[in-house]
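Attaching the record inline, Q. Sequence:
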Amino acid sequence: MVPRRVAKQGEACGIRFEPEETIFLMFSSSCRDEAHFQNPDAYDLTRDTGPAIPFGAGPHFCAGAAASRCLVARHAVPAALAALPNLRLDGTPIFKGWAFRGPTQLPVAWDI
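Structure, as predicted:
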């Protein structure tokens, strides 16, 4: 949930918004929005998140979004997997949270 100040009068989903009002946007689905993704609850690092706005949009877009994606996807995950070549998922990841959604359980097994 993120607070935003209404910049100009408008309406969405039958609700009118007036300038200077404070509203709260809920990104409850984020990268698992059922309207945009097949199998939204499956963990998929390759998912095209273009249709969603988990890092915000417009003037409120997170400046670190591209750096975050790059560091995690191109560096951190490959480095961890290279260091632990026999690491594998061993169950179903559990995701929770409404303001900051992420895995709370990620069961793995490592065959030495």
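Strands lie at 2-5, 10-12, 15-17, 22-25, 87-89, 94-96, 102-105, 108-110. The first strand starts at residue 2 and ends at 5.

More tomorrow.
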